[in-house]
Design goal:
- This protein is an alpha+beta fold and about 140 residues long.
- It has one domain: Thiol Ester Dehydrase, Chain A (Roll).
Length: about 140
C-alpha cells in the first residue's frame, strides 16, 4: 500500500481523523514518553491548576495529525520533515478531537508538500493549529 505521490495531489486536498481521548490514552502516552506531569495524571493536583482537571498531553493530541499524514494524506510511505504546533486550548478526557490536514503548497522540485494542520474538539473549537512539511511517497 502506498499513499498519494506528489503528482496525485493538489492544493486544497484534505483528510481528517477523529478520536475520543480516553484516560487510558493519557496513561499510555505518559508511560511511553516518561512525561508524568501531574497536570496529566494526577486528578488531585489538576484540581488546583488553571484548568481545574486533568488535561491531555499536547503532543498526544498533535499526534493525531500524524495518523492523517501517515495513513490518509499523503498516506503510507510519507516522510515527515517538519511540524509546527500552536496549542490554543486544553483537551480533556472525553473530548473528541478531529485532526485535519490540507495541502497548502506543492514543491515538486524537492518532492515536498506543505500542509495546514489543525485539531478541533467536539464543539468546533480549534485546540491546535499548525503546519507540516512532508515528503510524499515517490512514484512506483
Amino acid at each position: 500500500m502506498i499513499g498519494k505521490t506528489l503528482d496525485q495531489l493538489k492544493i486544497g486536498d484534505a483528510e481528517q481523523f477523529s478520536k475520543t481521548i480516553a484516560e487510558s490514552d493519557i496513561y499510555l502516552f505518559a508511560g511511553i514518553t516518561g512525561d508524568l506531569n501531574p497536570a496529566h495524571i494526577d486528578e488531585e493536583h489538576a484540581k488546583n491548576t488553571r484548568f481545574e482537571k486533568r488535561i491531555a498531553h499536547g503532543i498526544l493530541v498533535g499526534g493525531l495529525i500524524s495518523s492523517v499524514i501517515g495513513m490518509k494524506l499523503p498516506g503510507p510511505g510519507s516522510i515527515y520533515r517538519e511540524q509546527q504546533y500552536k496549542f490554543l486550548a486544553p483537551v480533556f478526557i472525553g473530548d473528541t478531537i478531529t485532526a485535519r490536514v490540507e495541502v497548502a503548497e506543492l514543491i515538486p522540485e524537492k518532492n515536498k508538500i506543505v500542509l495546514q494542520t489543525t485539531c478541533v474538539n467536539q464543539d468546533g473549537k480549534v485546540v491546535i493549529d499548525g503546519s507540516a512539511v512532508i515528503h510524499p511517497p515517490l512514484k512506483k
